[in-house]
Amino acid sequence: CVGTGDCFSQGFHGNGGGRTQAKLRGCIRALRAVTSLGEASVNQNLCEQRAFHQLLGVLIQLQAGCDEKDVVVVEMMSDVQWILSELCESDARAKEQFGSGGVEMVVNFLKRGSEKFYSGLGHNRLLLSTVDCVWSCVVGSDATEDYFLAKQGASLLLDLLRTSPPCVHGAVLSTLLDLCDNPNTRSQILSWRDADGQTAPRILLELWREEEEEELGVLRDQHGGIIDPKKPILTRLQQDVSGGSSFPADSPSAAVLEVSENLRAKIYLIFCCLGFQELPGLSAEDFVTLSIVRRYLDFKVGEVWDELSRELVLDGTKLTSNDEEALRSICETSEDTARRVMEEQSDILEQQQSVELHEEMMAYVEMKSHWKQQELTAQSWQNYVSRTSDYNVLQEVKVQRKEQVESSRPTPEDGGAAGPPAEVLHPHV
Q1: How far apart are CA 381 and CA 266, in angstroms?
Q2: Domain ranges (residues) in the chain
Q3: Which 3 state secondary structure label does DSSP give 220?
Q4: Cα–Cα distance for residue pair 195/214, rounded to 1 Å
Q5: In CATH, what number does 1-192 get?
Q6: How far is it, in rounded angstroms, from Cα 290 to Cα 157?
Q7: What is the pTM of this model?
Q8: By mean pLDDT, which of 143-147, 209-213, 252-256, 264-268 is the weakest?
């Protein structure tokens, strides 16, 4: 890896003074096997030997002469990124060594997007290794994060989130979430727009709805609102296992497992960093979904207590009166919260309906005024044509105008009020 020269012939005896692509590929695979062991001393030794600069140099060289249809080159680039991720994941000093050169590298790869994800040439693996490289090598170092954000890194991650397939969304959201610890991330996320002008909060809420409706089977109405206040965020899987046997004491329940297996918890935490007020570019449907997102943690706590209550019943555990009253109060509080959210959603939809009705009335008034103006214009034109094409009509109009002029003149009974004032003569003294 340290040597320089041609490395683009796959044969072992290819050109380049022995430094062939096959040898480089073997070196990269060996380094990946070594770093994947997780031995801190080995990884530290690699860092002391300036492995970062050498690996980044190899990666830049491969990227510069890369044929996007060359499976071997794409594989080597993704392997180098995995090695860098292993070296930086738990080492703050290594993240600093990654530096601006590493940030430039991941930014260039992020700009490629996900168009070739399903090409079958390894670009799916390269994309995932790039996102992992951002999470392992950039996130966690203030200086590296600031440089990454200065290069519009958060915007590139949002572009990737918008265009990538669903299997990539979890990794991108996790990286964005950790990047939100940097105070400069929020403004960049809120100012981002996609090609259609949609904002980041709206994209996140769309992902939430798609996740609930297509993947999790949560009960929602046509506007995305809560249907059953007893099950405000309950998934299809949780409903299937809710009536079964109790869970072992050493394994998490369905409500807890659900948090790590879908995107909702990540989206909720990102909104906690962005805030729930004054978010740009949201529709009424988005505000309905946002009301659920805001209460996600409350609903999840209620689910856990509900599961605990069922577990106690299945195990035949008899509660004291105080414990039973406390458990019932907690479950009722969760249900009351869901009902309040349902009322809030109804208010949002009613307000939106009022706005749409007002806009419809204004449009109707404008249309009516437009048609009235057209009628007046047509009538004026018709009168003009009648006056200029029919002599009799023209004579009638002439007589009418003459009568109007005569009627506007002062009559003799007015005492000559309209005449000039008489001159007053003064005798000479």
Answers
A1: 67
A2: 1-192, 197-378
A3: strand
A4: 25
A5: 1.25.10.10
A6: 22
A7: 0.79
A8: 252-256
